Amino acid sequence: MELYGATLSWTSSISLPIHIAQPPSIWGIKRFRLFCLNNIKNVSDETQKDNRMVVSITGATGFIGKRLVQRLHADNHRICVLTRSKSKAQLVFPAKEFPGILIAEEPEWKDCIQGSNAVVNLAGMPISTRWSFEIKQEIKDSRISVTSKVVDIINNTQDDVRPSVLVSATAVGYYGTSETNVFDEQSPSGNDYLAEVCREWEARALKVNKDVRLALIRIGVVLGKDGGALAKMIPIFMMFAGGPLGSGKQWFSWIHLDDIVNLIYEALSNPSYKGVINGTSPNPVRLAELCEQLGKIMGRPSWLPVPDFALKAVLGEGATVVLEGQKVLPARATELGFSFKYPFVKDALKAILSS
Ligand SMILES: NC(=O)c1ccc[n+]([C@@H]2O[C@H](COP(=O)([O-])OP(=O)(O)OC[C@H]3O[C@@H](n4cnc5c(N)ncnc54)[C@H](OP(=O)(O)O)[C@@H]3O)[C@@H](O)[C@H]2O)c1
């Protein structure tokens, strides 16, 4: 690690060169000093076993990112939150609860990325909105521009300070929708709007320098309490006494928040995780089954179908992800031996609703 001319290294297993060009402009002198002091103190107890990473994360303030940061922080990894708004990120990650986390707005992303040995790219405008022409453009552009920026920074970094891994989000929307087909990582892309967004999003990530290990995670519908589609669906479900949504035959390729975070975490540290990896549970369900399980857990008999318009009212055209859907299997994660904490939707929902 290079700090104003002093060259140190945090781990012997991972070469971790950090070059911090203008630290005070990024973190403020006080925090930066604290950062340096901590690092220098920690250098002395480095061992071969010390696998701490420095991870820069875009979209860290979102539903998945927040939990990822909590996990990485709890395991003592160093984190740079790459955000559009420092003040918002400071509210999400108060210094008291997350000491040592660095928060950087766009002009400082370069310094953070060059000081990291891993990057996670999760940023993108939420799709659960009304899709006007302008919003559709923004949904796509937000993903493409952040991914391009991150990739350009990585590619323009000297070999010796370049992060060695990029884990970049994409979505199962890549495959298009179908009630009958089963998709895995080898399947072709669909031909609807979300498939096009995912293809272009992935294409930007694929431009990363070939020496950087790239894991593209095609994420399914993430289930958790404090965000994502489920949190929005539950009140509607309650209002309509909890019957199936739409026809109920559509496939719902879901994953519990803990599992997607574990998969990203594993992809950061395990060199076998590269290329496209579906981030879905091994047991997708038809929507009717999801609603039935949800109804049982919430003590709501599944008897009145929830009309499409109600779901569209809260999810906007983003509801197509739920109302049309696709059956996606995590073939690569299974091959890699990834262990799902919640392989079945019943257990996932129980855990979420009882927490
Ligand atoms: N949750 C799911 O079910 C799911 C399913 C499939 C794929 N994904 C993908 O996984 C990624 C993370 O999902 P999430 O649910 O955690 O997302 P999220 O809660 O909506 O958060 C995404 C983050 O992206 C940044 N962002 C928002 N609007 C942006 C814009 N217009 N331009 C640039 N950045 C913007 C924000 O960070 P700052 O404000 O700090 O910049 C925000 O916290 C997303 O790209 C999403 O498409 C999620």
Automatic annotation (TrEMBL):
<dbReference type="InterPro" id="IPR001509">
    <property type="entry name" value="Epimerase_deHydtase"/>
</dbReference>
<dbReference type="Pfam" id="PF01370">
    <property type="entry name" value="Epimerase"/>
</dbReference>
<dbReference type="InterPro" id="IPR036291">
    <property type="entry name" value="NAD(P)-bd_dom_sf"/>
</dbReference>
<feature type="domain" description="DUF1731">
    <location>
        <begin position="306"/>
        <end position="352"/>
    </location>
</feature>
<feature type="domain" description="NAD-dependent epimerase/dehydratase">
    <location>
        <begin position="56"/>
        <end position="272"/>
    </location>
</feature>
<dbReference type="InterPro" id="IPR013549">
    <property type="entry name" value="DUF1731"/>
</dbReference>
<dbReference type="Pfam" id="PF08338">
    <property type="entry name" value="DUF1731"/>
</dbReference>
<protein>
    <submittedName>
        <fullName>Epimerase family protein SDR39U1 homolog, chloroplastic</fullName>
    </submittedName>
</protein>
<dbReference type="InterPro" id="IPR010099">
    <property type="entry name" value="SDR39U1"/>
</dbReference>
